[in-house]
Write a structure and sequence with these properties.
Blueprint: H1 6-27, E1 30-41, E2 44-54, E3 59-66, E4 69-74, E5 79-84, E6 91-101, E7 106-108, E8 112-116, H2 119-154, E9 171-173, E10 180-182, E11 188-189, E12 194-197, E13 204-207, H3 212-228, H4 237-252
Parallel strand pairs: 2-8
Antiparallel strand pairs: 1-2, 2-5, 3-4, 3-6, 6-7, 6-8, 9-10, 11-12, 12-13
This protein binds zinc ion.
Length: 253
């Protein structure tokens, strides 16, 4: 035979329900501010915003206020109002809400303070963020380009197939000309690799360091390609003279 649990649970609920409702009444209303469109940061806002209120089940009316003056009233959940900061004087403003329950109780919400910015001031605040950030990026790019150019100028032309030393940063293979070169410690890390100029062909690309075996293989393959486009060494004047003599010797016969 089962024990009659249900009546007990019902009794418990009957006790708890009013307690819970009362607890919520005590907590009052919760006011939240959200940005629908515009600028918001560091307690400063500009644009289209929404105030939203949550409260007890029997909430029937909510008044939304800015600096204590009612700007809107809502009699249906979800209790909310959308407003534009430009419609209010700029400066520090306090947002709040008051609610009424079905039994005539009055509830107050928390207050939210924010500085309403004029559209112009918000634009300036945005610029204040972005300009230094862009300046920094440009500066880093310029420094990287400068260092790479200096490094490229200092470097002597490397003969085809000549084994190279790859320092701490390792080496890479230029995706443009296919020749390997050591990476400089400096250089703008682009996440996927370093933005750097190839000392052989001078073209810029984002490169990553490659294993030494690959670099050695690239050095070796330079020689093969050098065969296609042979780099003819200038003969010394002595050699030329000898050649001329040889030629003349043959001519005399
Ligand atoms: Zn190259």
């Amino acid at each position: 035979m089962r024990r009659p649990l249900w009546p007990l649970l019902a009794l418990l609920c009957a006790f708890l329900a009013p307690l819970l409702a009362e607890a919520q009444d005590e907590r009052g209303l919760t006011l939240r501010l959200s940005r629908d469109w515009g600028f918001g940061g560091f307690g400063q806002i500009q644009g289209l915003f929404s105030m939203r209120v949550t409260g007890p089940e029997d909430l029937v009316r909510v008044q939304f206020m800015i600096d204590g003056l009612t700007i809107a009233e809502d009699e249906e959940p979800p209790f909310s109002v959308q407003f534009h900061t430009d419609n209010y004087p700029s400066g520090m403003r306090t947002m709040s809400a008051a609610g009424e329950t079905a039994d005539g109780g009055v509830l107050q919400s928390n207050e939210i303070g924010a500085e309403f910015l004029s559209a112009e001031a918000a634009g300036k605040a945005t610029t204040k963020f972005i300009i230094p950030l862009m300046g920094l990026v440009v500066l880093i790019l310029a420094l990287t380009a400068g260092f790479s150019l200096v490094a490229a100028r200092k470097r002597k032309p490397v003969a085809w197939g000549q084994p190279r030393k790859y320092g701490l940063s390792g080496g890479t293979i230029c995706p443009k000309c296919g020749r390997p070169f050591p990476l400089s410690l400096l250089g703008l890390n682009m996440g996927l690799g370093k933005f750097t100029a190839c000392p052989h062909c001078g073209k810029w690309s984002v490169v990553r360091s490659r294993p030494l075996a690959e670099l050695r293989a690239a050095e070796a393959s330079e020689l093969e390609r050098a065969g296609e486009k042979p780099q003819v060494a200038e003969r010394s004047s002595e050699e030329k003279l000898q050649q001329d003599l040889d030629d003349s010797r043959y001519q005399s016969f």
